[in-house]
Each structure stands twice: as structure tokens, then as C-alpha cells.
Amino acid sequence: MVAQRPIRSVRLAWATFAAWLGAAWLLPSGIAAQQERVTEAGGGLAAVAVTLLVVNLSAPLAARRKGHTVTGLRLALAGLAATACFGMTYVADRRGNWVKPVDQATLADAAAATGGRLVIAEDHYPQGGLAAAVLEALAGTGLPLRVRQCAVGGLPGSGTRTS
Hints:
The protein has 163 residues and is mainly alpha-helical. It is 60% helix and 6% strand. It has two domains: 10-96; 104-150, no CATH class. The chain has helices at residues 10-33, 36-61, 68-96, 104-113, 130-138; strands spanning 117-121, 146-150. It has a two-stranded parallel ribbon.
């Protein structure tokens, strides 16, 4: 039960657990053994697990006025889904080079169309991320750039038990 509302299905919860357990075993095994197919299977199982989790918890977390705990669970679930999307992008990109090498011509066209104004959102610390790759690709173009980077600046703090 979440927010005094039942989850959709206990079977769905067990399927979520099984998919997550498979992903937790396949992903590190595939990476350690440098086996692309095993890593991709683990990423696929992780996506299935997150999808099942969202389906199973969507009704209980839709409850209104249930306090900070439910709000925190909603945010955690949204973060988990976003992280899984980034992970799936990474797994899908391992062969396609969707992120690297960066398409310099497309970036230069986009920068020229916006007058050199770019906003780059990172899902981690600013060092060595997407902004670095974009700036490196545009360094030799001679375009005047105005770049804003949104990135994680530090780890969030936690409150005390009473807060």
C-alpha cells in the first residue's frame, strides 16, 4: 500500500522485481566481460522494470493531499524514470555514436541560428560532460558563443528525522 491505496498488482510487483534483478545482474556482468549483447539485454530489462514500476505505482501516487512522503515518492519515481531513459540512451548509443562524435556541422548551424546562445543541461557534474563536447566541437568555428550550463553543483543535504 502506498498513500493508503493499493498497488495495481502483486504479480506486477514480482515481475518488476524479477526484471530489476535480471538487469542488476546482466548490466555489470556485460560491462565487466565487455559483451555488448549482455549489456544491452540488461539495459532492456532495466527499462522494463522501470516501466512496470511506473504502471504499478501510478494509481497510489496519484492520490492528492497525501503529504511530503507521497510527493517525495513521485519525485523519486520521476528521477528513476529519467535515469532509466538516460541509461537506455547510453546503451542504444554504444554502437550508434549518437552522442559522440558530436556532429559539428549541426551544432554550428544551431549556434548560428540562435546567435551563438546555447543552454546545455547536464545530468551530472559539469566537468567532462556534454557541454565540454559541444564547446570542443564549436571551438574552431569562430562563432561568438554565449553558453549557459545547467549541471549538478554538489550533493544535496538531508534533513534530520524530526524535520
